[in-house]
Amino acid sequence: MSKPDRYVGVDKDINGGMTSIGKIIRDAWVYGLIPETETCEGWNLAGIDALLQKVNAKWDKYGCMVSQLPESLAQRHYHIHARAIQNAKLAGWSGEHETGDEET
Question: Where are the domains of the chain?
Answer without folding.
Answer: 14-99
